[in-house]
Amino acid sequence: MMIPERPALERRVLDALNGTDGQPRIPVVLGGCGSGRTALLLRLRDLIGRSSCQYLDIERIATTPERCLTAIRDASPFPAHPYGQGQGTPPGPREAFDATLALLEIARAPGDLPATFLLDEVLELRTFESFPGLRSVLRDLIAALGASGNRFVLTTRYSARALRLLRDAPTAFEIIHVAPLSAAEIRATLPASAESKNVPSAFREAEEDRARDDLAALVHALSDGRPAYARLIADTATAHAPRDAADPVSALTALLAPGGQLAAACRFSYELRLHRARGYGALKAILDVLSREEPLTLTEVALRLHRTPGSTKDYLSWLEDVDLIVSRQKRYSFADPMMRLWVRLHSRPVPPDADEIAREVHAFVMARLPQAEPALALAGTAQTDDSGVRNWGIIEID
Fold it and tell me: Are 261 and 255 in contact (CB under 8 A)?
């Protein structure tokens, strides 16, 4: 399974850029790790045309203001201008950042048309605020883009920070949240089985359709519609069952094992977000508490952490700031259920064994399945076949 194209999302972004309602806007696309933001921008680059559009991965080039300017200028498809050059001495941090803003504001596409910039992970420019003379980089950027005649699409994985930054921004900015995949979108990317291709009967096709519907529905429930999770679960389930029915529950169990791809993806997001926040160790402790029990109130978290409510409130606000937790009716829980499962499994002194992973995945699956449908549950214990291979099959319970 590949992350599918999102025509409705692409159309909304293009409509905002083109001002189909009479007012061009700057789309700001918000979505977590693995939500498909980068895939969206690369697709837009091809739709708009590479001679009129520049994609920039800010996370990779936000090193120093000077080197960032050089990277953007050297990769630009637009006519060369002496941004930050010709001054006799190399530009300092403030001069380099001002030159970057000038490049974004006044660069032109062929035919003297507005240039389009696709700025992926734009909030990473915040790292420049530690340089002399740069204490309001993001506010300066938003003001410059809002006043420019060029076109921009911005993305970030940090929704809370983006919403706070844009609270008082010009009305030209339009927030667009990346919606989860639907079961139908997941189904459209599932490969047909080899057996169904070789047996072109109406019965086989109907059976295959039912199997694909069931697989898509279960993958959707387990992944919460998050594209990266859905892709990994579906790919693993179908690859490991070329002849038998695909088993996404067993696939999830394998993916969350030490060294599994989903475990690695969760660890990346976990560490990345914690390193962008304050209070690293205390934040990990709170996530461990919430992985055992959620939702919890501020007082309940403070008691379990053995800290004062005041300090605990700060910690919780820092976790909300990087979108690791959410607060609903003053009760805190993980923003991503899969991340909670990963923390339960891997925040321990030793790696989890197969039995522990199976038990945790079983509980996760039972909590995710729609209660109105017949429940699919993992077998309570692993069965071993004659060859000595463990079978973590699923049982259908009427």
Answer: yes
Q: Of 45, 43, 57, which Cα lies nearest the Cα of 5?
A: 43
CA torsion through residues 57, 26, 227, 270, sign: positive
* Section 358-384 average pLDDT: 65
pLDDT of residue 83: 59
Give the separation between CA 301 and CA 306, rounded to whole angstroms: 8
Q: 295: cis peptide before it, omega within 30°?
A: yes
Kindly report, residue by residue over 254-272, the tens digit of the pLDDT. 999 999 999 999 999 999 9
Q: Where do the domains of the chain lie, and which CATH numbers do they carry? A: 7-177 (3.40.50.300), 183-257+352-397 (no CATH), 262-346 (1.10.10.10)
Please report the pLDDT score of residue 210 as a whole number.
82
What would the two tokens of residue 214 be? Answer: 């069931």
Residue 387 has pLDDT above 90, yes or no: no
- The percentage of residues in the chain with a pLDDT greater than 90, rounded to a whole number, is 68
Q: Are 101 and 147 in contact (CB under 8 A)?
A: no
Rounded distance between C-alpha atoms, residue 284 and residue 295, angstroms: 16
- Asked whether residue 202 carries a pLDDT value surpassing 80, the answer given is no
Which candidate, 132, 109, 377, 385, places its Cα nearest to that of 250?
Answer: 377
User: Which residue is associated with the tokens 């883009």?
Assistant: 145
Pairing of strands 375-378, 331-334: unpaired
Measured N-to-C along each axis, helices 202-223 and 248-255 cross at an angle, to the nearest 10 degrees, of 40
What is the helix, strand, coil percentage profile of the chain, to 5?
55, 15, 35
pLDDT above 90 for 178: yes
The model carries a pTM of 0.84
H or E stretch including 346? helix 337-346
**C-alpha angle with apex 107: 102 to 113, nearest 5 degrees?**
145
Identity at 371, one-letter amino acid code: Q
CA distance 68 to 62: 6
Q: Round to whole Å and give the CA distance between 86 and 82.
A: 7
Please, which residues have CB within 8 angstroms of residue 199's CB and are 6 or more apart in sequence?
A: none
What pLDDT is stored for residue 3 in this prediction?
A: 58
Count of helices and strands (H, E) across the chain: 18, 14
Instruction: Say how far apart CA 71 and CA 69 lie, in whole Å.
Output: 5
